[in-house]
Amino acid sequence: MNFSPHMANSLDFFPGSSAASSSKEDSTNKTDLRIPFSYEMQQSVPNTSGSGLTELQEEEEWAAKEVHLTDDKHKVPELPKFPNCVSLITLYLQDNYELTAIPPLFFQRIQVLDLSRTYIKSLPKSLPKLVALKKLLLQGCDLFMELSPQVGELKNLEELDLDETQIMDLPREIGKLFKLKQLKVSFYHLSGRKKSKSNILIHSETISNLSQQLAELSIDVNPADQRWDDSVEAVVKEVCNSKTLTALSLYLPEFQLLDSTSLIYPSLSRFRFTVGRHKRRIISRVPIEVEAEFRNWDKCLKFVNGENIPIEIKGVLKYSTSFFLDHHVTAVTLSEFGIENMNGLKFLLLAECNEMETLIDGEMHYERNGDVQSESDLGSVEPVLKSLEYLSIYYMENLQSVWRVPNQFACMSKLKVLALHTCPQLSKIFSYAVLENFVNLEEIILEDCPQVTSLVSHTSTKPMISDKIFLQSLKRLLLLYLPELVSISNGLLIAPKLEIIGCYNCPKLISMSKMELSSKTLKVIKGECQWWDNMNWNEAEWGTRPDYLMRIFSPIDNEKDVMTQLVEDRVLLGATTQNEDQQQANEKDVMTQLAEDRGILETTIENEDQREWKYQPYYLMDIFSPLNNEEDMVTQLAEDNDLLETIIENEDQQPDDDKDEMVRLVKDNDLLETLIGNEGRQEVNHQAKRSKIMCMNSTSSSSSCLTDTHSYTALTQIWAPVEAPSVTPASFVPSLQQSDSRLYKT
Hints:
This protein is α/β, with parallel strands linked by helices and 746 residues long. 27% of the residues lie in helices and 16% in strands.
């Protein structure tokens, strides 16, 4: 398999298992001090104590447990020969292209060492002293050609990444690493360099010894290397005996080898198989970024130079999420691989299958589901490629249509990207019958297809008329080198969310309708200046020339690659849209916070209101007065108003009466004090002790029952009358609350 250098940002064959994530794994419960470190002579080198060094020294102190020297500011051409790094556990040096050697006495306690994409040629002879090393990452080291047998002394090693190196063989001592869980290796030794000392690429017993604990295994080889042909069968046999394997990547020159792996691949969480004999091409017709996208999926199958359709391929295809069919010799339709085997596919890449005439043959699909279906029964048939999200086609000489299906055919409802490149016989893209399936399609790229006249094919010469809106999610439309293109949608209303449209070398596309440019979110129209200046705008439809379209037009630079410019605009637009979305999200967050605060405030007020009215407000109940429906309402309100004024007038008079009463009470109190002074220590009756004076209403004094004659005589001497109108409930309060009460009121 060819894992291209452009994948340098990924340290792993498999998505989600990148060695770059090791920093999180290994820094758990450890100190992570990311020290900016530089070997410029006059630059300060800070350490954990806060002090700095001003010049390069032989002994360098690194007090951190984890150090990253990976960005442009902190790359190093060499490491100190005698570092003082007794605490160092994790060191990341990837992408230091000037780093060519590792000092022999460096980081003996290290557990994680990442040297990916450096120019080191070998590991130091002191390698066996790294007894604590758990992860050794050398991915993309182009000058690294030989792995020392001393690697077998690293008894604690759990992960070894030798992908995209130039090693010529794997030492037998690898089999001694009984804790090794991840092994990734590629053998792409360039011709003309040093020849291998061994005729065996990888020993089968090495895999056998590791099979009891190995979780991930990736072996990438040069297809022309005969040594792999000699050992692949034994390696596959040992791999299939593993009980712990969860991820597997292999190049299998013969499809029959898949029969052995059938015992294991259904249970794998990730796999990548390249099946078939092929030569490694210096220049591929498929762009490297597209192949990289193919490899980014969890379960990938690449079938190369096939002459038939083996049942073993169909078996793996059933479990695959990504399928690359490269240069198949005999297949006429993709349906021959079994549509039922591709229900889980999300990415489909086809290249140079020159006998293929159509991708999906609906009639073949229905025949495999039983008898020929009537139109009313089509809905009961399972949709075709129901999970597919990306479809890319390159250099298909005889491809005439993408799908040949009957009306009301359900297919590719989740498709997001459709890219068709260099298909000289292709004339039909969408038919009206299948167009409404593509509700999630966001991008269409149509390049170098000289027979295409419109995206939507139609048998009649008149434009189609429909009140439906098609391609509702389409955002990007790129049309390149289409000399016969005269219409985009053939009169149908499409793409209400279109953001960018690019046209190049489409000389017959001289007009566009509002049905094709209906989007309110259109931001860029890319094309040649002359093509845009000569565009005809139907006056009956557009009126005058649409100025808002003129403002968003961007000319293509003929001195640069057209597709590159369109991709750059797409990336720029994507970044702009992302920023706008982020800004809207931030504004939404603010509004959400305000709404939450408002909700809290309303809840607080509501709770306070509930506490305030916890008990029934009886004073409001007391003053409620019902209206008499049999009398005039205005008259009743007027009467109530008169009554209210009378009450208020009486209440205003009441304070003066109370004031007169208090004056009399004060005089009585003075008289009382005089009597007490005259009596001295004279004993009085126990009732008289409790009250020296009692002010009683003259109307109630006669009803007092005083059976004790002596008590009666004593009380009558101190009794003083109070006028009835001046006695109010409030006048009792002061005397009754005093502990030495001398005055009772009744």
